[in-house]
Design a protein that fits this description.
This protein is of the alpha/beta class and about 450 residues long. The chain contains 19 helices and ten strands. It folds into two domains: about 210 residues, Rossmann fold (3-Layer(aba) Sandwich), CATH 3.40.50.10490; about 180 residues, Glucose-6-phosphate isomerase like protein, domain 1 (Rossmann fold, 3-Layer(aba) Sandwich), CATH 3.40.50. About 50% of the residues lie in helices and about 15% in strands. It has a five-stranded mixed sheet, with helices on both faces. A five-stranded parallel sheet has the order 3-2-4-5-6, sandwiched between helices. Helix 5 packs parallel to helix 11 and helix 12 packs parallel to helix 17. The longest helix has 22 residues. It binds 5-phosphoarabinonic acid. 5-phosphoarabinonic acid binds next to loops. The site of 5-phosphoarabinonic acid (PA5) has 14 residues, from loops.
């Protein structure tokens, strides 16, 4: 089970302050459970893990098997919550050099529809031009420009390269049950489709087909992922004293109220980079509203100790750090001995590389605390599907609780519309005539 250590927060906020929040956390938990909180029509994630049945997982695995059998590459088209969870889990579980070591047993998983980079899309479609590829098109609304653009290109290319009949087999839609362009297209073309439940928002959707299908196509164990989340669902429903998600939420809230406005999620494993990206979306989009919210940032350590380390150690003291620590490495590698010892590192010879990494972690944590940075540590036993499932639900529950404490609706994202409105006005979208005129006037054109 995840271990949460908040003892290195003590010099900044006391254990009494954090524990004193227990009654408010209990109220927040109750509001989530009873559906009396703002955004209560989006609480489907709360009991999602324990509602997943073996039959449902079997259906996901069957579709994944078709894509695995028929495709050398599968492109996951989606943005925000419609791709980050899958990307995070796949990257965390994959060989770091999967591009180079792909033995043909697993299709290469690629991501698109999360940017509007012309070069990116050109290079992707060029790469795919001699590949047997499939597409998982993920969009709850079905109207997201980035994803719709990628899907238009990929659908056409897939049909041209593989023929209409095979395209039908290797294009899968994950979208709303009834609404949106992706639903209409899937129904019209006869694609296999999965539903994103109405009551689960994008950033809470990794344990729906949105995350489960790409992860299964990549060859990872979705049974264990779900099992980890199920176990954490039970733990995170417990009273404060036994509930790490509740304690993490309370600690963040106490730190925020003490002037720590930025949380830096740090990891010591390069494979966790996208877990941090997923985490940033979960917390950023959920709590950054009404002029409130902790700004979620991230660093990959020890890499970024040689770039951001200076700022963390001595910059403005408005930050706190949360470290995800993986207790056991999957492989064993010893620090080599060297006859000449020019770098003076022979004192490390024979030690596990992971032992050196752990001392870097501990040393950094102590240095940061000494430098005025409160430190939270979240430890998982190993980097596997089961523990990632735990971590995902742990963060989701903590996020839900923290938003209640802050007094914001965790489940909407009204601010995301502002850029879209301007972009559509600038591009002259039909129906935006007044906005187009106003923005042109503002820009003096
Ligand atoms: O968390 C969210 O709701 C958002 O990040 C969405 O996932 C994102 O905007 C993509 O939306 P859609 O799935 O409708 O294309």
């Amino acid at each position: 089970m995840i271990k949460l250590d908040v003892t290195k927060v003590a010099p900044f906020v006391s254990a009494e302050t954090i524990n004193g929040l227990a009654p408010r956390v209990a109220e927040a938990q109750k509001a989530l459970e009873e559906g009396t909180c703002p955004g209560n029509d989006f609480l489907g994630w709360l009991h999602l893990p324990t509602s997943i049945t073996p039959e449902f997982l079997a259906e996901i695995k069957a579709v994944a098997a078709t894509l695995r059998n028929e495709c050398e590459a599968v492109v996951v088209a989606g943005i925000g919550g419609s791709y980050l969870g899958a990307k995070a889990v796949i990257e965390a579980l994959s060989n770091s050099f999967q591009w180079l070591v792909n033995d043909g047993k697993n299709p290469t998983i690629l991501f698109a529809g999360n940017n509007i980079g012309e070069d990116y899309l050109y290079e992707l479609t060029t790469y795919l031009s001699d590949k047997k590829f499939g597409v998982i098109n993920i969009s709850k609304s079905g109207t997201t420009t980035e994803t719709a653009l990628a899907f238009r290109l990929l659908k056409k290319q897939c049909e041209e390269q593989r023929g209409k009949e095979m395209a039908k087999k290797v294009i899968v839609a994950i979208t709303d049950a009834k609404r949106g362009a992706a639903r209409t297209c899937a129904d019209k073309e006869g694609y296999k489709s999965f539903i994103i439940p109405d009551n689960v928002g994008g950033r809470f959707s990794v344990l729906t087909p949105v995350g489960l299908l790409p992860i299964a196509v990549a060859g990872f164990d979705i049974d264990q992922l779900v099992k980890g989340a199920q176990d954490m669902e039970k733990t995170a429903a417990a009273p404060f004293a036994e509930n790490p998600a509740a304690q993490y939420a309370a600690t963040r809230y106490a730190l925020y109220n003490s002037g720590k406005k930025i949380e830096i999620l740090a990891n010591y494993q390069p494979k966790l980079h996208f877990i941090a990206e997923w985490w940033k979306q979960l917390f950023g989009e959920s709590e950054g509203k009404d002029g409130k919210g902790i700004y979620p940032a991230s660093v990959d350590l020890t890499t970024d100790l040689h770039s951001m380390g200076q700022w963390i150690q001595e910059g403005e003291r408005t930050i706190f750090e949360t470290v995800i620590s993986v207790e056991n490495a999957e492989h064993k590698l010893l620090f080599p001995s060297d006859e000449e010892n020019l770098d003076g590192l022979n004192f490390l010879a024979g030690k596990r590389v992971d032992q050196v990494n752990k001392m870097a972690e501990l040393g950094t944590q102590l240095a940061h605390v000494d430098g005025g940075v409160p430190n939270i540590r979240i430890a998982i036993d190993r980097l596997d599907a089961y523990h990632l499932g735990q971590l995902i639900y742990f963060f989701e529950k903590a996020c839900g609780i923290h938003c209640q404490l802050l007094g914001v609706n965790a489940f909407n994202q009204p601010g995301v519309e502002a850029y879209k409105k301007n972009m559509f006005a600038l591009l002259g979208k039909p129906g935006y005539e007044a906005e187009t005129a106003a923005i042109q006037k503002r820009l003096g054109c």
